[in-house]
């Protein structure tokens, strides 16, 4: 059992990192609520898996309907958690969706939708959860970012990369604005895991197929090469469980020991170096502004 048992909400827990994180945290002894959309329809088997695991392993693990694209859904999910458990300690912002294709071939509505899931979704969950955390005077936000917003990243993933960069920027500002409420922040930065999650499998594609085809005539070969070489950069022993393990490790650290950012990047795209430099520049700038106290206590500086 965890020495300090926490009530933890994980968004997007029907598959991939979110599913493994929910299982891992529950096995570590925490009270875990796996947020999923379509719990009575498409994700009913994932809900059943949660129920089965909770029973067979005597875990404090349950699921809740949570579509991050609906404020009503986020509000209802948090209300249900507080009703059942009287508190909420940690939110893991994990729900996300990727798209692949030439930037120009995505309609503005598609770009908006990608941001709606990856960025605005976290805002909906925050607006539901933060009043509870602020009321408690304690809590932790764990944001599942992406090495794409810090390190080297290939073309033809622009809408997704832009959204993850926006989410990272939101997380940074939130960190400074929440620290005085006793609410901590850690951004988990996974590199590419091309198998073991639905990330690449369920990726969306441009609606404007004619424009995408125009790029294919000039870039088709490069795109095919990237599609082949990206998985080759991921070492064969890269294990998606390592992301879940890192999230669980971070949550179990004492409040004043958690890193502001932590990288799990088997393909080593350089994001760790960029993060170190960016965090130092930010610390110096905060110092010049006289607001260094608003930096997460434990920023890796
Ligand atoms: N795999 C990688 O290479 C990689 C690298 C860096 C960062 N990430 C990030 O890691 C996170 C998890 O991705 P993954 O690799 O584990 O892929 P995944 O298996 O596709 O998981 C994505 C999860 O997000 C959920 N989701 C999507 N839209 C949602 C919505 N509107 N409301 C609630 N849940 C929603 C999905 O639910 P449904 O089953 O209902 O669609 C799914 O459970 C994402 O934020 C992703 O950006 C992944």
Description:
The chain has helices at 16-27, 44-56, 71-85, 108-136, 158-178, 209-233, 241-252, 271-289, and strands at 7-10, 31-36, 61-65, 90-93, 139-144, 183-190, 261-264. It has 301 residues and is an alpha/beta fold. It has a single domain (7-294), classed as Rossmann fold (3-Layer(aba) Sandwich). It has a 7-stranded parallel sheet, with helices on both faces. Helix 3 (71-85) packs parallel to helix 4 and helix 4 packs parallel to helix 5. Bound molecules: NADP nicotinamide-adenine-dinucleotide phosphate. NADP nicotinamide-adenine-dinucleotide phosphate binds next to helix 1 and helix 4.
Bound molecules: NADP nicotinamide-adenine-dinucleotide phosphate
Whole-number count of domains: 1
Helix-residue proportion: 40-55%
Task: Give the CATH H-level superfamily.
Answer: NAD(P)-binding Rossmann-like Domain
Rg value = 19 Å
The DSSP helix count reads: 8
Spans of at least 5 consecutive residues with low confidence: none
Neighbour order of strands in the largest sheet = 3-2-1-4-5-6-7
């Amino acid at each position: 059992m965890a020495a300090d048992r926490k009530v933890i909400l994980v968004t997007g827990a029907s598959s991939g990192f979110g599913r493994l994180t929910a299982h891992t945290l529950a096995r570590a002894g925490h009270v875990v609520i796996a947020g999923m959309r379509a719990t009575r329809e498409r994700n009913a088997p994932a809900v059943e898996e949660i129920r089965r695991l909770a029973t067979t392993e005597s875990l404090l693990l349950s699921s809740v309907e949570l579509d991050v694209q609906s404020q009503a859904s986020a509000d209802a999910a948090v209300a249900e958690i507080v009703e059942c458990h009287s508190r909420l300690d940690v939110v893991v912002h994990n729900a996300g969706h990727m798209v692949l294709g030439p930037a120009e071939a995505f309609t503005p509505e598609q770009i908006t939708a990608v941001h709606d899931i990856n960025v605005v979704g976290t805002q909906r969950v925050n607006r539901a959860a933060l009043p509870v955390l602020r009321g408690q005077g304690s809590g932790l936000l764990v944001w599942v970012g992406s090495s794409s917003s810090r390190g080297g990243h290939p073309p033809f993933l622009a809408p997704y990369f832009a959204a993850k960069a926006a989410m990272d920027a939101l997380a940074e500002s939130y960190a400074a604005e929440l620290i005085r409420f006793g609410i901590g922040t850690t951004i988990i930065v996974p590199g590419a895991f091309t198998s073991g999650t639905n990330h690449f499998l369920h990726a969306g594609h441009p609606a404007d197929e004619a424009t995408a085809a125009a790029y294919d005539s000039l870039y088709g070969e490069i795109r095919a090469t990237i599609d082949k070489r990206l998985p080759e950069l991921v070492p064969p022993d890269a294990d998606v469980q390592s992301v879940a393990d890192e999230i669980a490790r971070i949550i179990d650290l004492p409040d004043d020991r958690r890193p502001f950012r932590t990288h799990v990047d088997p393909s080593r795209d350089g994001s760790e170096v960029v993060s170190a430099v960016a965090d130092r520049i930010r610390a110096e700038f905060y110092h010049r502004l006289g607001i260094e106290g608003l930096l997460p206590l434990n920023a890796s500086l």
